[in-house]
Amino acid sequence: MAQDNLTAVLYKTKDLRLEQTPIPEIKDDEVLLRMDCVGICGSDVHYWQSGACGHFVLKDPMIMGHEASGVVAKIGKNVKNLQVGDRVAIEPGVPCRYCEFCKTGRYHLCPDIEFCATPPFHGNLARYYKHAADFCYKLPDHVSMEEGALLEPLSVGIHACRRGGVTAGDVVLVLGAGPIGLVTMLAAKAMGASKILITDILESRLETAKQLGADHTILVSRDSNEAELVKKVHELLGEHPNISIDASGAQSTVRLALLATKSGGVAVLVGMGSSELTLPLAGAVAREVDIRGIFRYVNEYPIALSLVASGKINVKPLVTHHFALEETLEAYEVARKGLGIKVMIHVQPRDSNNPTKF
Ligand SMILES: [Zn+2]
Ligand SMILES: [Zn+2]
């Protein structure tokens, strides 16, 4: 009898199904993973609701999931870094390793990167999934499988802060307090930011941000006056932020980032909204505000793991909802409604692979 490999497959817009798929065969440098935790990301919801995210378009059925952790079930014959039974966080993008970007260490820009649940590549929301062994990171016993899955969004936040050059004493403005805004804030704090102000359109998210350590918050709305918002940012911080990080992608927040950043500072754009925006560029240019884009993360999984393992960052409060794999559709519905922060799908019963009680 075939083994259970229940899998969440997105067939087309609004057509997400749970069905059996074959257990993957591993190559010599790969591991087979018995999946444990898979978080739902904004991009997953985009694919499900509209069949696309940014310039990636769903053409064929695709297995969902990219924020994940699992347990090694089988290793290929060349695998040296892992053993059967190891609990791992899975870095979802595996690059070609040969191109200019791979060779110069910016492998996230590799044009041939195969990234989980980004068409045409399958994700890992299944009982079993195979992955390149060197893109799996062994978790210490005291780091939970949920935390392992959260290293994915956390890596985005760390990458945003590193692109912005966040270091001791910086004054940071974060636009948007969704999961990415919050992990960006946590990363900025861990990297030494002295003051952080975070904005959002939902009071509930700002409450979470305060609990997680935001120094100041501003509730924005559609009809907020831009000039007044800039003034409020400067007043609350008592100075101009030298680094602004937009984790929303909305035109209004990118504008605010450019307007509020200190002369000579940096504005980092993480959020992905419309492909074209109307922005007050002249002022930013004349004040030498550097505008930096980011794409996912690179070489940041080990940093994310060490920050979580050492207790410098606590990502646990980000998970607000838990579902079993069988309840994937309900889980996606909760994520779509934007209730809570991070929705976690448990492929194995919760905590069954955690040696330590959490
Ligand atoms: Zn994601
Ligand atoms: Zn490459």
Number of helices: 10
Task: Please provide the ordered H/E string of secondary-structure elements.
Answer: EEEHEEEEEEHEEEHEHEHEHEHEHEHEHE
**N-to-C terminal Cα separation, in Å?**
36 Å
- Radius of gyration, whole Å: 20 Å
Give the DSSP E fraction (strand runs of 2 or more residues).
Answer: 25-35%
Structural category = alpha/beta
Key features of this structure:
single chain; 358 residues; alpha/beta; Quinone Oxidoreductase, Chain A, domain 1; Rossmann fold; 2 domains; 10 helices; binds zinc ion
Describe the structure.
- The chain has 358 residues and is α/β, with parallel strands linked by helices.
- The chain has two domains: 6-138 and 315-346, Quinone Oxidoreductase, Chain A, domain 1, CATH 3.90.180.10; 163-293, Rossmann fold (3-Layer(aba) Sandwich), CATH 3.40.50.720.
- It is 28% helix and 26% strand.
- The strands form five sheets. Strands 3, 7, 8, 11, 12, 19 and 20 form a seven-stranded mixed beta sheet that branches.
- Helix 3 (145-164) crosses helix 4, helix 3 crosses helix 9 and helix 6 (226-237) packs across helix 7.
- It is globular and about 65 Å long.
- The model has no long low-confidence stretch (mean pLDDT 96).
- The structure holds zinc ion (2 copies).
- Residues 41, 43, 66-67, 152-153 line the site of one zinc ion (ZN).
- Residues 95-96, 98-99, 101-102, 110, 112 line the site of one zinc ion.
